[in-house]
Amino acid sequence: MSVLSKLILGAAALACSIPLAHAADKTYPAREIRFIVPWNAGGSNDIAARMLQQLISEQGVNVVVENAPGATGAIGMTKVANADRDGYVVGMGTSSTLAQIAQNITPLKNEQFSHIARVSTDPLMLLVPADGPDTLEAFLAEMKKNPGKVSIGTPGNNNLNHIFAEMTARAAGTDYVNVPYPGGSRVIADLSGKQISAGVLKPSESKAQIDAKYVKPIGVFANERLALYPDVPTFKEKGYDVFPYGPLVQMAYVVAPAGIPDDVRKRLIEIFDKAIRSDKFKAFAAQNGFLVDDLTGQALDKEVQNVQATLNDVAKRVFVSAK
Q1: 250-282 pLDDT tens trace
Q2: CA angle 79, 160, 236 (to 5 degrees)
Q3: Which of 29, 222, 235, 259 has its Cβ near the most Cβ atoms within 10 Å?
Q4: H or E stretch covering 117
Q5: What pLDDT band is residue 13 in, cutting at 50, 70 and 90?
Q6: Is residue 46 a contact partner of residue 184, using CB atoms and an 8 Å limit?
């Protein structure tokens, strides 16, 4: 074959490869998507991720949930930030990461992520063992009687749960023992076993134990009572301000590494938004006491920035004064 013939064939092959490559892009996702949950299995974020996994499979898309707990979510989120920018690794971001960023205790930055869709907005509750104090007032009185001895467990450190544990101690006017865990499932297990005095948790990660009467909620960190537990009072109605520096939102949301192609981000938004807004996921949310909406893409970018700004102020005030 002559040199000219080889050049012609090579050019033809290159020309054919261009539309084929473009066609390959349109097949995304062509393989399974890893969904990294930076918490232990059994916690609220893990439970939500596995429900989404089931719903997304109905779209013909295979999602594999991978737990990567540690450092209040920072280990798993670092895996997501460092993943290839091809859309085949996503993660479950949470307000815990934003709280860490606010205090400069993690090298992670929001700019390292492409925000896809909000999964949940969660209220937080103060829970005690089944034979613990029956009311919030009784628990705070117990804290006052035993300054620096009552323990409150939280899934992680320096996050919203930790902030509200601090606010509980402020309401009692005394110190306490902070007990951080790598996830809510560990907190609820030790609380059920009476290894700790109380815990700050979401309804979704404690409902099974509440129903089984191993633990009971005695206060809600919100402005209104929860539809799931209408008999449990808020701190506010009892005269305790747990938002002295502004409102705080506990939320979970799907992220991909920053820099993924626009068409891949758009497809990820379509996939997750469809699952989140499905009747099945809305029913799941109602059963587990959290809220869902259709916040995605750039709107979610803005919401994360707003929550970050609040936490930049709140977290520093709370934790600096607590030291």
Answers
A1: 899 999 999 999 999 999 999 999 999 999 999
A2: 160
A3: 235
A4: strand 113-122
A5: very low
A6: no
